[in-house]
Amino acid sequence: QVELVESGGGSVQAGGSQRLSCAASGSSFSSLTMGWFRQSPGKEREFVAVIRSRSSGSRIYYSDSVKGRFTISRDNAKNTVALQMNSLKPEDTAVYYCAAGTGVILSSLWTAGAYGYWGKGTLVTVSS
Fold first, then answer.
1. CA dist., res. 25 & res. 97, Å (int)
2. Cα angle: 79, vertex 82, 86; to 5 degrees
3. CA separation for the pair 9, 71 (Å, rounded)
4. Helix, strand, or coil here: 1?
């Protein structure tokens, strides 16, 4: 069992930055694939970024919409994963969810259903 708790959401002006953190407990953190997803009102939950487990080289992938603006990182010693968001746009407004999965294969990294554990989410609001 893995418990995930996000923090760091809030309101920010367009062009600004925000840093989200996710603290994990309950299982071997370094073996988990850790992802960030987001969901806006009326839209499906969408993939944002993922960092794979240590055994998979901690490889990182981003959605095209955030590539170059967002950075995902993990600290296996502290059981945390972070999402640094820069150059924020109003369309980045959403509830951001931290997700964890075990044995997530490459082709499923951007699929919400591949992750078995979810945080409750944190709201990020970007105003123009």
1. 16
2. 170
3. 16
4. coil
pLDDT in tens, the chain (128 residues): 899 999 999 999 999 999 999 999 976 999 999 999 999 999 999 999 999 999 999 999 999 999 999 999 999 999 999 999 999 999 999 999 999 999 899 999 999 999 999 999 999 999 99
Find where tokens 């299982």 sit: 27
Residue closest to 35 by CA, chosen among 125, 114, 91: 114
Question: Rounded distance, CA 5 to CA 23, Å?
Answer: 5
pLDDT of amino acid 109: 95
Task: Please provide residue 90's backbone torsions phi and psi, each rounded to the nearest 5 degrees.
Answer: -55, -35
Question: Residue 43 CB: number of other CB atoms within 10 A?
Answer: 9
DSSP, collapsed to helix, strand or coil, labels residue 108 as helix
* CA 49, chain centre distance (Å): 6
